[in-house]
Every structure is written in C-alpha cells, then in structure tokens.
Amino acid sequence: MKKHLFPLFLLVLGANAQAQQDFFAIAGKDTSSIVFSDFRVMDATNGTSGDKLFSADAVAKVFSQERKGNVSEDKNSYNHSQATTMAALAYDPMNNNLVYMPMFSSNIYILNAKTKEITLVDNTVTKVTSCDINSHITRMTAGYDGNIYALNNAGSQLLQISRKGSQYTVNDLGIIKDDAANGKNSFTAIETGFGGDMIADAENNFYVFSASGNVFKVVAKELKAKFVGKISGLPENYSVNGSAVNASGKVVIASAKGDSLYEVDLTTLQAKVLPGGEKPHIYDLASKYFANDRATLVNALANIDIYPTKVDEHYININVNDQKIKGNILLNVFDISGKNVMKQKLSVKGGSLNQQVYLKSLVNGAYIVNITDESGKALFNKKILVTE
Question: What sequence ranges are listed for the domain Secretion system C-terminal sorting (predicted)?
C-alpha cells in the first residue's frame, strides 16, 4: 500500500497559466494498491493532467548501458521499466530526460521524453529487496548541481546519479540521520518519516515531504534531517506521495489515494487546494524548478537568451534582439551561494547583440547568469551547469 511509501535567490514575477512541459507525474490506476499507469505531463497551475508520455502498456525499447545494447526484460519481475511499483521520479531538464526507479528494484531508468527511448543503468550500489520496506526507493529529485538524488524510506541510502558524457554513474553518499531536536518527529520512523517525495533548493539542500505530511530539511553535507514542521490545510488522512516545485517557487503535492493536488508555501507549510477538481492517483512528481531559486524569474522583460545551458567548453553565447535595449548591458555570474564570480560589460547596438563569452576559470557546478541594463534593472536570469 502506498501509505508506506511514505531568500536571496527568490525573484518570481509569476507563473505561466498554461500547462508546461516541465512538470511531470507518475500516475497510477484507481486501485487500493500501487499499480503504475503512465508518466504524464501535469499542469502545475490547476493540478490537472496533460499529455501521457509513456504508459505501462507501451512497447518499451530498453538499452542497457552496461551491456551496450538493447535488452529484453522480464515483465513478471519487479526489475523492469514498466514495473507496477513506481514511486520515484526526477526530471533532468539539461537532457530532457525522466529519471526513475521501480520501488522494489535497484534498477535506474532514463526515459527520453522526446524519443521515448529508455536507458537502463545497472545499479550495484543500492541494496533494495521487495520484502524490506526500509530499503524501498520512494523519493527522488534533481539537485541544483545537475545531479539526480534518490533516497530510500529509512534514509539509509542517499544516492547521487551523475552523468558524464553519455554514461551514468551511481554513488552512495551515506546514511541520513535524525537531527537531535527531532524528538517524536523522527525522519527514520515509518509513521512520521517514510514515503512521500523530495525537492531541492538553490543551495543544494533537500526537503523531504513524508507521506504523513511532515517536512524535513536535509543538508547533504551533514547527512542530517531536521524536522521543519507538518503541512497544514490538508484533508484528514491525506497521503503525501508526490512533491515538486512550480514556477512560482511553491511546492505542489499530490496523493496516491486519488485526491486533489495542493500548493504548499515552504515558509509557512500552509496548503491551498489547486482549482482543477481532478483527483488523480499520483505516486511521484518532478519538475525543473527549485525552491529559493533566482533562476525562476520569468524572462519576459526583454528578448534575451543564452546558450548552451549545459556548458562543457567554457563558452556561452549571448543573444539580444530587442530595440528597447540600447548601450551597455552588464553580465554577472553567481555561484549557488550567491557569490558574484564574474562580471562583463557587453555593448548592444541597434537592439542587437550576438556574442560569445568566455567563462574564464569557473569550476564545475551550477551558476546563475544575470543580465541587467546600465541602471541596474534586471533583464534576464538563467541557470547554467558548467561541466568538463
């Protein structure tokens, strides 16, 4: 039963009222147990379903990274890409991939949201057995550093899934323990800490939303979970099984029991029901957004863009095409702690600029590229990931 699945950088101008292809869910069938139905796009504004990307009934084409070829999977086992027990999902926007794990399996799957091709990452690091509820992977999210993180029910394994080139690697970062102040609100107890989902913030911390509605902040460097509080405003016995950040910086939560989606303010933990009226069975949520993230600023102030966002040669291209922008603009690059690590003045002529900028000696990691006009007015923010 799913009941056991148990700001410096916040500049937001508003959410897009239309469903976007950046908020996803594992949806289930209308049953009392966990039965995977499909991966689907969700409208994070009103909590309703959009396009179905891949279903339990689809023909799966699975490529094994280890065996370097396509493989046939045993559909009668828990170890396949369309297993009934799905509860962990993350979205990798840099590669337009959905990353997920069956709950009773150590296998990691990478679904290309566009081509529908699936890569199997054989995972020998994770210790998962179907009969051990503590070991089940039920929480997953993209980290601000570009890696994917997954966590089991008991917090005894925090996994980091990294990509270098076309290859994925898995590392066990260790055991998450209770903060001494947690008391009866234990992160490692079934009734208070198991299941649910997790999100990341712009400082690469994690927030775990347990099935019981408790919220814990996890600082990965310390490997400790501190009880933050309990979500208020939910119906009695609401099971929190999915969580993801929307474009407004709020957390959207969903239930496997078939209930409305709610928007939660991370500061107050107050929940507000989303207006769609749909009550889907949701086992997990994923999005491209992060809590307390300056990069969630809607870039509607000017016709500016930068590319690529995944930088492997230390160059980015700045493109401006806006007659309202004249003279000089200032490019600033901030690291995830908010430190300004680079400044450069650029000259716009006739409302147009197309220039390559060298990122000097920036080390691997996540950064925010900020562009202002001469008066200091913000025109543009975008997250980039510098890799080797």
Answer: 306-384
Helices (H) and strands (E) in the chain, counts: 1, 31
Lowest mean pLDDT among 101-115, 168-182, 227-241, 290-304: 290-304
- How far is Cα 248 from Cα 229, in angstroms, rounded to an integer? 21
* One domain for residues 174 and 139: yes
Helix (H, G, I), strand (E, B) or coil at 341: strand
The band of 360, judged by pLDDT with boundaries at 50, 70 and 90, is confident
Number of domains, the chain: 2
Per-residue pLDDT reduced to its tens digit, 96-153: 899 999 999 999 999 998 899 999 998 999 989 999 999 999 999 999 999 999 999 9
CA distance 13 to 251: 16
pLDDT exceeds cutoff 70 at 303: yes
Residue 358: pLDDT over 50: yes
Neighbour count for residue 32 (Cβ, 10 Å): 9
Same domain, residue pair 203 and 321: no
pTM, two decimals, is 0.86
Sign of CA dihedral 43, 160, 361, 340: positive
Q: Give me the mean pLDDT over the 177-206 stretch.
A: 96
Does 12 reside within a domain?
Answer: no
294, 202 contact by CB (below 8 A): yes
Q: Mark whether 228 and 349 lie in a shared domain.
A: no
226 and 309 in a common domain = no
Q: Which two tokens stand for residue 101?
A: 């794990």
191 three-state secondary structure: helix
Q: What pLDDT, on the 0 to 100 scale, is given for residue 230?
A: 98
How far is 208 from 243, CA to CA, in rounded Å? 9
Measure the CA–CA gap between 243 and 252, rounded to whole angstroms. Answer: 6
User: Do 79 and 192 sit in the same domain of this protein?
Assistant: yes
The verdict on 211 and 325 lying in the same domain is no
**Domain harbouring 324, CATH code:** 2.60.40.1930
Alpha-carbon distance of 134 to 55, in angstroms, equals 27
- Whichever domain contains 49, its CATH number is 2.120.10
- Contact residues for 278 (Cβ-Cβ < 8 A; gap 6+): 47, 48, 49, 260, 261
Boundaries of domain holding 229? 23-287
Which residue type, as a one-letter code, is found at position 349?
K
